[in-house]
Amino acid sequence: MAFDEIRGGGGGPGAVCAGSMSVVEHVRDMASAGLHSNVRLLSGLLLTMSGNNPELFSPSQKYQLLVYHADSLFHDKEYRNAVSKYTMALQQKKALSKTSKVRPSTGNAATTPQSQCLPSEIEVKYKMAECYTMLKQDKDAIAILDGIPSRQRTPKINMMLANLYKKAGQERSSVTSYKEVLRQCPLALDAILGLLSLSVKGAEVASMTINVIQSIPNLDWLSVWIKAYAFVHTGDNTRAINTICSLEKKSLLRDNVDLLGSLADLYFRAGDNKNSILKFEQAQMLDPYLIKGMDVYGYLLAREGRLEDVENLGCRLFNISDQHAEPWVVSGCHSFYSKRYSRALYLGAKAIQLNSNSVQALLLKGAALRNMGRVQEAIIHFREAIRLAPCRLDCYEGLIECYLASNSIREAMVMANNVYKTLGANAQTLTLLATVCLEDPVTQEKAKTLLDKALTQRPDYIKAVVKKAELLSREQKYEDGIALLRNALANQSDCVLHRILGDFLVAVNEYQEAMDQYSIALSLDPNDQKSLEGMQKMEKEESPTDATQEEDVDDMEGSGEEGDLEGSDSEAAQWADQEQWFGMQ
């Protein structure tokens, strides 16, 4: 007796009635109700029965059972097993299509409703592609979706294809797929961002949404939103900030977390760390479960020496989700700025494993590798970060630091000049180029000119102030350096600037004020070793009778500290051992 004849209300064919259900229909209803573990158990048993008795289920019923079983495996994150079952289901469907062409209809009323509500073959292929992306087999995902005729592709299929093409560097195909998403769903904002990121003009993208903007009330902001993110993706940070601020000030969009996050990120890109931190804090207050952008926020806090805040942020993010890259990056920043580079390397690699597109994770791992002396490996990571975020200056800074660390001044100069031409002559690019020029005695004057231009544009840009101070120190123009640093500190407080001012004051014998500057620097960052060394050096000079004893003590402490650092790295060697496994995919 076939299973389609067995009904819930009776024992034989005579008991068949319109209201009764087959066992496969029960499986389908459980799947619709989200009872995945129940579906998995029952469908597994039924498939075994079908294997032992091929006549037990019709071909269409077996197809359904395979799909529902695969869906339950997908829900349990057993992606490889799910792909196997989806493949079997598609083979069954192919066989079913052939038999339906050859065999005339039997007139069996029980199978007709089932044939009308068979799981979609296109949906099965989409689920297979999802499995492949989870398994990091993007080529297989593209192949399965490419096999679906264009006219049968749903918006979510086109969106997945667009993202996969973009990741694979197939920009033209990606643009086509994103446009198809917008044709079907003109308010698909992530598809709009995808097009803008692929250098499609803002005006062209806006034209694809103009009809829906004009036909729906309270959507007039969307054209401004598109304009803002067009500026973001062309690297025009100033105009992007101004445009998003104008949106954010509108009463209907005030306190939007996504806009605040974008503003924070733009301030960070523009080198305005103070405003970036303020916007991240504002967004975090509005949404305490916010994860996006928190890796950059953690990095900024770590740079400021606020390691306790970084540690608390990392713990909070792990409580929200450990399946995102951000908490791992934040913890990695804490380790990096605590000089535990091996652990920072492991945490960065773990973040990359969770999200291979995490720019901040690549930068963290690259910086850890560089500081561990593995410069060539670091270069690979910084290059990948540049590929993913060509408008982010910090990616280029990391690569140039690697070139300078390996004495490749020519490569560093070529890269800095390219950045200057590509991103334009702003305070950041001028300073980056000057940084490279400072490394070559021949280009010292050029460095000075570049830094003066940078400081004319932005007198408070800390990196430019630091480099100009470095140049003045070489020329022993300490009074000029003191004036520069006092001017920069008039409207901001920064550990490095206070410390350098302390060094300059020592050079002109202003010891008491130098001590004050070192104290301020250490209050801002208690882990700043150079400020501590400056203060200790002054204390020795103040009490020369104890100098010999203190030198002995310092030698002992120095050797102990070095041992501790080595110990921390050897203790973390287990993290480094796993680096091969957690490395770039």
TrEMBL record:
**Per the record, which residues fall in region Disordered?**
533-585
Q: Which Gene3D superfamilies match?
A: Tetratricopeptide repeat domain
Give the GO terms filed under biological process for this record: cell division; positive regulation of mitotic metaphase/anaphase transition; protein ubiquitination
Keywords, A to Z, come to: Acetylation, Cell cycle, Cell division, Cytoplasm, Cytoskeleton, Mitosis, Nucleus, Repeat, TPR repeat, Ubl conjugation pathway
Q: Which InterPro entries match?
A: TPR-like_helical_dom_sf, TPR_rpt
What GO cellular component is one of the record's annotations?
anaphase-promoting complex
Tell me, how does this one assemble?
V-shaped homodimer. The mammalian APC/C is composed at least of 14 distinct subunits ANAPC1, ANAPC2, CDC27/APC3, ANAPC4, ANAPC5, CDC16/APC6, ANAPC7, CDC23/APC8, ANAPC10, ANAPC11, CDC26/APC12, ANAPC13, ANAPC15 and ANAPC16 that assemble into a complex of at least 19 chains with a combined molecular mass of around 1.2 MDa; APC/C interacts with FZR1 and FBXO5.
Instruction: Please report the name of this protein according to its UniProt entry.
Output: Anaphase-promoting complex subunit 7
Q: What organism is recorded for this protein?
A: Amazona collaria (yellow-billed parrot)
